[in-house]
Each structure stands twice: as C-alpha cells, then as structure tokens.
Amino acid sequence: MSNLAIIPARGGSKRIPRKNIRNFLGAPLIKYSIDAAKRAKCFDEIMISTDDDEIARVAKKYGAKIPFMRSRKNSSDKAVLVDVMIEVIEEYKKLGRHFDYFCCITPTAPLIDARRLELGFEILKKKNADEVMTVVSFSYPIQRAFRIKGGRLKMIWPENINKNSQDFEKTYHDAGQFYWLKTDSFIKQKRLFAKDTIALEIPESEAQDIDVEEDLKIAKLKYNLLSGRKKEGKNSG
User: Is 63 helix (H, G, I), strand (E, B) or coil?
Assistant: First the structure.
C-alpha cells in the first residue's frame, strides 16, 4: 500500500497575487500544508503540482518533491482540480509508479492538522469508501437564505419565513483543506466529489478559505487562537 500527497499550487492567482507563497506569520503559506503532510507520517511521497519555478523552489526547500512540472493546459484560470489530479497520476504512471491512495491537500490551508490527515486516511480504509473530505457546518440555516434583486431582499424559500432555526436540517460546505481518495475509484469516476464520500467534520475555528486579503487576516487570527489553545493544553498537562 502506498500513499501520495498532492498539493496543487499554480502560479497564476489573481485575487491574491502569489498567494501560494505569500508570507503568513513568517513563512510561505504552502509551507504549512507541506509540514502537515510530513507530520502526518502516512505519505510515501509529498509532491507539488505547479507550473511556477519560484513555487517549485520554495516547495523543495521545505521538503516536497517536484517530479515534473504541470502542463500549460492545466495551469490556466479555467483548469479544474480533477484534471490536475488526473495529470499527476498519469505522469507518475509514466515513471512506473502507482499509488493506492492519494490526498489532495490545498496549498493555502495554514490551519490544517496532521492528525486529521491521519484520521481521514484511517476512515477511508476502515469504511472502504471512495473518498473522505473535510466539511464545515453552515453557521446559519441556508433554508432561510436571501437573494438581492434590485437592491431589495427576497427570500429564496419564502415558505420558511416563520420556521424556527432549530427546525431545519443541518447543512455543510467544503472546508477546503483536503480530499483523501482511492486512486482506482477516482480514475474511474473522474470527479472530486466521489459517489461514496464520507464527511470529516471540523469546527469553523479550524478552517478558513483564503480568496481575498480579508481572509488572510481572519486566518491569522484563527491560527493564533489555535496555537494558544495548544500551548494551554501542554501547560495543563
């Protein structure tokens, strides 16, 4: 049994230029994902899929491998993650290497926990599922969501206007941290959200999607909060 960590990190981020190697509390963002994968102790190889020489140099500095560069086709704004992962698997196949499982880890996830990476893999094996992905619950029922039309608020589901929040089913969204996948199932289905996917729920305090500058500020606050909790835990022990 062999496992691969794939960290996709192209160089063309627009909303936050050079996001993948942006300084985050003294280190490039991508370092946090690499470090978590290394601490997890469940990967035979940790690789970065990138089209960018600078990102490749940074990744190598912190212990990841760049066995090949990403193709131009899968480096554009329109490229999708599924195609990037397929390309990685196929390129490794050309090198005579096959991995039974792989984990796609986002390059901008400084709150990622190595123990959750290990737990995700254990769940995937134990349940014999196609995929395990991290999710976060919506903090407010989406069944009472609004849309704005002509500056006016409209309920998407007006029939829910008088219902209590606790009456709605709990809903979730992608936490944007990692996706554990069974390689053979992924190649057959060619989809990120596999048919048999198990959710690994994490608290909102441990996840932060980073798309704009404000997200970076929030991620730093959460990181410092979590670091403080860990220190308190060690001191109390």
Answer: coil
Q: In the 3-class helix/strand/coil scheme, how is 157-218 assigned residue by residue?
A: CHHHCCCCHHHCCCCEEEEEEEEEEEHHHHHHHCCCCCCCEEEEECCHHHCCCCCCHHHHHH
Domain membership of residue 20 (yes or no) is yes
Side chain identity at residue 32, one-letter code: Y
Range of the domain at 220: 3-135+171-236
Residue 143 maps to a domain: no
144: in domain:
no
Triad 123, 128, 130: Cα angle to 5°? 90
Amino acid at 230: K
Task: Answer whether 3's CB lies under 8 Å from 103's CB.
Answer: yes
User: Structural domain tally of the chain?
Assistant: 1
**How does pLDDT run along the chain (237 residues), one tens digit per residue?**
899 999 999 998 778 889 999 999 999 999 999 999 999 999 999 999 999 999 999 999 999 999 999 999 999 888 899 999 999 999 999 999 999 999 999 999 999 999 999 999 999 999 999 999 999 999 999 999 999 999 999 999 999 999 998 899 999 999 999 999 999 999 999 999 999 999 999 999 999 999 999 999 999 999 999 988 666 556 555
Kindly report the CATH number assigned to the domain that includes residue 185: 3.90.550.10
The helix-helix angle for 29-40 and 114-127 (nearest 10°) equals 50
Whether residue 15 lies inside any domain: the answer is: yes
Note the pTM of the prediction, 2 decimals: 0.93
CA distance 47 to 128: 25
Dihedral angle, C-alpha 19, 21, 24, 29, nearest 10 °: 90
